[in-house]
Amino acid sequence: MTSHDVVALVRRQLQIKKVGHCGTLDPIATGLLLLTLGRGTKIQDLLMSEDKEYAGTLTLGATTDTQDRAGKILEEKQVPPLTDTSVREAFEKFRGDFYQMPPMVSAIKQGGVPLYKLARQGKTVEREPRLVHVYSYQISRIEAPEVDFSVSCSKGFYVRTYAHDIGEALACGAHLKDLRRTRSGRFIVDGAVTVDELHNSRPVDILDRILTLPEVSRMRGA
């Protein structure tokens, strides 16, 4: 499902016209998608500006044109012998503040046109590097050619590009295999309504679980 599909499902199931989402999930991604309903859409930009947390798997030895497994392979290289130290050194290069080049397959607009639409036309345009921040990361599994990790990062951060750049640092290339958003601001995926619940629960039961604006303000310490 796309993020737009989820919004359409909520509109249909809850009979609410005004529904927005806080940050598109990539096609291969799963996990938390914040939705705003009715008057809640007024704080959508505020919620989108908060930090995120993801869990993912990168595959070493191949780069793709989308920087994830959905794209076409551009180059393949042999994966060198990996050690815990060498992998951590590569991750450490992308900790704290640094500049990240947004991928061509992204929703950023150039001249009013999303980059992904230009990419579909086979076009590549110049992009401005973005200042991003990685607060912390964890590496949970290293089994070549795959590495499982989690990362806590600022808004506007591309985990696909993070995987790609770590592959460059290891001199063998990489792309993102799997991605799951586990947190956005104070919201965690474990407390979310699932798609199955949206399909199968009574609307009144879903509505009972929706947070009010005052509840969200208290969560955020406002």
Automatic annotation (TrEMBL):
Kindly provide the name given to this protein in its UniProt entry: tRNA pseudouridine synthase B
HAMAP family named in the record: TruB_bact
Q: Cite the tRNA pseudouridylate synthase B C-terminal domain residue spans from the record.
A: 160-200
Q: Which UniProt keywords apply?
A: Isomerase, tRNA processing
Recall the GO molecular function terms of this protein's record: RNA binding; tRNA pseudouridine(55) synthase activity
GO BP term, example = mRNA pseudouridine synthesis
NCBIfam families xref list: TruB
The entry's family comment says: Belongs to the pseudouridine synthase TruB family. Type 1 subfamily.
Superkingdom: Bacteria
Pfam entry (one): TruB_N
Enzyme Commission number: 5.4.99.25
Claim: Isomerase is one of the keywords in the record: yes
Which organism does this record belong to? uncultured Chthoniobacterales bacterium
What does the function comment of this entry state? Responsible for synthesis of pseudouridine from uracil-55 in the psi GC loop of transfer RNAs.
Reactions that this protein is recorded to catalyse: uridine(55) in tRNA = pseudouridine(55) in tRNA
Q: What residues does the Pseudouridine synthase II N-terminal domain cover?
A: 11-159
| Alphabetical list of CDD domains matching this protein | PseudoU_synth_EcTruB
Q: Active-site residues? A: D26
Q: What is the lineage of its organism?
A: Bacteria, Pseudomonadati, Verrucomicrobiota, Spartobacteria, Chthoniobacterales
